[in-house]
Design goal:
Two copies of one chain form a homodimer.
Chain A (H helix, E strand, L loop, with lengths): L1 H8 L5 H15 L6 H7 L14 H15 L9 H18 L2 H6 L7 H16 L4 H24 L5 H15 L6 H13 L7
Helix pairs in contact in A: 2-4, 4-7, 5-8, 7-8
Chain B binds a DNA duplex (30 and 30 nucleotides) through helix 3.
Chain lengths: 203, 203
DNA sequence: CGCTTGCTCGTACACCGTACGTCGTACGCC
DNA sequence: GGCGTACGACGTACGGTGTACGAGCAAGCG
């Protein structure tokens, strides 16, 4: 029994291991597939054991979000602020594409974790060093975040990933819903997008 | 028996009534407080009765999102596109502030409802009439949406609503978490924001 | 040895979404 | 009028969820 657990979980549990496995599970099965019992199963443990490392599922979700923030590249000091911000945005987009469930979790989670704080500190530092006044830096921060989050949110709710899939979807699903006399402009857009081989990887 | 039901629910059910009451319940208690049983209770009906008007909870949520889109002001034809877009953004922000649960639902819901389609059609129409080329209009649409969604997402995750609450929160919760030697810039920002009486109602 | 301390986890509870089937009743038809 | 049918309402039940509680057990220490 003890042996089995060791095989399944490679030595004892820890908050770190619990949270990391939770992220893996969410990546694999979506956030709805993440239940305490299933997570415990994946760790080779009983469901209630998790509660020695995590006070509640809420706290687990907070910690998962923080893991995601850890993956976002911090701005580098040396470069100018524009390319630093661009790199950060690109990195954030990649990370959120890798963990789509994180976007839905951002809402409702109110207290920022340490990685989140470190991230904001670094960004603010970069902007301030570039000469932005305090309030301006805060506004820029907010605005950039708005755009990155919004982008990720929209990207997540698109039902296709590539230009080819778009073409298929458009033909099979969208166009039948769009009587041309009622939605002339959307039809025009759809046609143009398909013709242009639109791929949602622009900025 | 018949009488009781009528008193409680003012004539029979309907998809409309179910969805509207669901929105009200979500406004009042958050999306987590919205369960089929509670919704049925609020309508003076049994839980399973709802399934005659809604195929599943998923469909109910889709319909609720569409109700929210209906509340967002459509751009008016006459005005120039900039103020039209501004009005739309302001309206969207107000609506999403009124129904904060909607933001969390936007993710994961993939097929747009009729009000959503009408909305996008109107926006596209406005931009196209203003002389934007097709692809440009689509990009502008996407970009504006990104910003609005991101803004709402951030606003929703802020744990305070007014400048006063911010001041309280900063003193009680944030500053203790921010050792000045580790987060010099965030401390600076926090101080500046409190001093300036920051209120999250800018754009 | 016994005692404490810290993990683990089985059981139980309240609640969830919803499949299934039963019932009262309204309505078209004779 | 009588009757068959169809439909809306809903009681019950099943398999899931998060988690409170407490029993069990191993390791460290006197």
């Amino acid at each position: 029994m003890r042996k089995q657990r060791q095989v399944a979980s490679d030595a004892g549990l820890s908050k770190q291991r619990v949270v990391v496995e939770a992220v893996r599970l969410a990546d694999r099965e979506g956030v709805d597939g993440l239940s305490m019992r299933r997570l415990a199963g994946a760790l080779g443990a009983g469901a209630m054991s998790l509660y020695h490392y995590v006070a509640s599922k809420e706290e687990l979700l907070d910690a998962m979000i923080d893991v995601v923030f850890e993956e976002i590249e911090l701005p580098i000091e040396e470069t100018d602020w524009q390319s630093a911000m661009r790199r950060r945005a690109v990195s954030a987009r990649q990370v959120l594409a890798r963990h789509p469930w994180a976007i839905g979790l951002l809402e409702s989670r109110t207290s920022p974790g340490p990685a989140n704080l470190r991230h904001h500190e670094a960004v603010t530092a970069c902007l301030r060093r570039a000469g932005f006044p305090v309030l301006m830096a805060t506004h820029a921060n907010w605005l950039l975040d708005s755009y990155v989050y919004g982008f990720a949110l929209q990207a997540a709710s698109l039902p296709f990933d590539t230009a080819d899939e778009l073409a298929d979807m458009a033909e099979d699903v969208y166009l039948p819903q769009l009587p041309p006399d009622e939605f002339p402009y959307l039809n025009e857009s759809a046609a143009a997008l398909v013709a242009a081989g639109y791929d949602p990887a622009e900025e």
